[in-house]
Amino acid sequence: MTGRADANPATRDAAPATAAAATGEAGATSVRLFGWDAARWRWVAAAALLAAALYAPFQLIPFHVFQLTMVLVYAVALLGLNLLVGHAGQISLGHGAFFAVGAYAAAILMERWDTPYPLTLPIAAAVAFVLGLVLGVPAMRLRGLYLALVTLAIAIFLVPLLKRFEEVTGGSMGLTLAKPAPPAWSGLAEDQWIYFLVLAVAVAAFLLAGSLLRSRVGRALHAVRDNEIAAEVMGVRLSFYKTLAFAWSAMFAGAAGCVYTWVIGFVSPDSFTVNLSITLLAGLVVGGLGTMAGPVLGALFVMFVPGISQEINDAAPGVIFGLLIIAVMYVAPTGLAGLAGRLIRKIPRKE
């Protein structure tokens, strides 16, 4: 009978997938270590990480504080990319372009119109969101290799465009900006104040992303990622949620670009080449797709591994960087976050 639900092949395909997902989630939450389930351990790990982050700038030299600040910047950018690639199952090689949009939006607001730096954050994020929404409508009609090529074209196109409008963007010379100064009551050095500003943005971004993924939107993105046909049968509007994921991803990238401007105090087109987009995607894959820890681990990789590659071989750092990526993916095919999860599951537990 045509009225029966199991007569639809897509529905039959969706049922096992849904059951498997439910089983996987139940298995993940049933893992207990020292009497605590995985959800409680995640909160403990997050609290410990936040405590370490609050303590670190008072114990490190300014250069290391700067490095940690940049890790937070990249973590916010990778958080947005993770929404699109890890949770929505779409590919993007143009994430660095939206990072640049946020950076230039903040720089122009601060340099041309003397906008207070706190106001540049929501404006830069909104500009990137709207641009992601506009570009996402045609881009999300594509998939796979074709979508990757379109997003790559966006990243390639942006650099000459920024150089073309010299009167606004500063052209190849870029824009030099004053960094946010710490208030007198804080007693903090400039590097420490900027670090805490970026830390606050990063914490807010992760809380927002976590809330989004636990909502109806997050469930829809996961349905699209796992099985588009089954998701459409269940009433999920594919083009709407794909476009929304693209816009949300761009918004987080724009916010990261804005705080990047606070940290560096300078923007130029050559800072946002296509290499940035590729490096961000590689960092996310190494960190772990579809996990909340993946962007943090990926940010550490993006920040420190290129420098390590340069130290190992000054003549060919790109080769060393590529070999390190291959080595990490061989050891941890699901990313560093997946590797950590496997190691934790191997710890003997009391039933």
TrEMBL record:
Region Disordered, annotated ranges: 1-21
Topological category with respect to the lipid bilayer: Multi-pass membrane protein
Highest taxon in the source lineage: Bacteria
Major place of residence: membrane
Subcellular location: Cell membrane
GO CC list: plasma membrane
Name the UniProt record assigns to this protein: Branched-chain amino acid ABC transporter permease
Positions of transmembrane segments: 41-58, 64-85, 92-110, 116-137, 144-162, 193-213, 244-268, 280-306, 318-344
